[in-house]
């Protein structure tokens, strides 16, 4: 299984996450835009996920809720700005626990030998906002989500 890589440079406002996935871009795009499959891979292993809204069209809204073992809920959401199947998704991304700290995330899916190169770049409003996501465990959760996504895609291939 491929490892998820992060590019987090000091003084910058962005986080870049890169993962090689053993599935074609159209299959990856289908899985990452299917509200029925999101709960199987989105977020860390320790949290469940509920999809409250997912309108994958420009101007469409999305809202996912992570749920911990004690029933605590952590909402995330935003608006899709660009959807180009199976190449790209651009959306805003906001953790409801940090209202007003909106990031712009661009996910690109590129065909490479053996599968897809998945790149997610999140640009935050400030270095401090970006660093808060890092301090809050964003990279750990991102790695776990990408591992889970790879598992869902591997199961679909068999």
From TrEMBL:
Signal peptide: none annotated. Gene3D superfamilies: 3.30.530.20. Pfam families: AHSA1 (PF08327). It comes from the Bacteria. Residues 23-153 form the Activator of Hsp90 ATPase homologue 1/2-like C-terminal domain. InterPro entries: ASHA1/2-like_C, START-like_dom_sf. Belongs to the AHA1 family. This is ATPase. It comes from Nonomuraea zeae.
């Amino acid at each position: 299984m491929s490892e998820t890589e992060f590019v987090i440079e000091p003084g910058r406002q962005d986080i870049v996450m890169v993962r090689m996935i053993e599935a074609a871009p159209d299959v990856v795009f289908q899985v990452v835009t299917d509200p029925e499959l999101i709960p199987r891979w989105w977020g860390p292993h320790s949290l469940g996920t509920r999809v409250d809204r997912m309108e994958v069209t420009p101007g469409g809204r999305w809202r996912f809720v992570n749920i911990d073992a004690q029933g605590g809920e952590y909402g995330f959401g935003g608006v899709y700005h660009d959807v180009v199947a199976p190449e790209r998704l651009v959306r805003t991304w906001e953790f409801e626990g940090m209202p007003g700290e909106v990031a712009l995330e661009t996910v690109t899916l590129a065909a490479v030998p053996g599968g897809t190169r998945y790149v997610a770049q999140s640009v935050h409003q400030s270095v401090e906002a970006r660093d808060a996501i890092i301090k809050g465990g964003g990279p750990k959760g991102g790695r776990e989500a990408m591992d889970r996504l790879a598992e869902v895609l591997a199961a679909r291939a068999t």
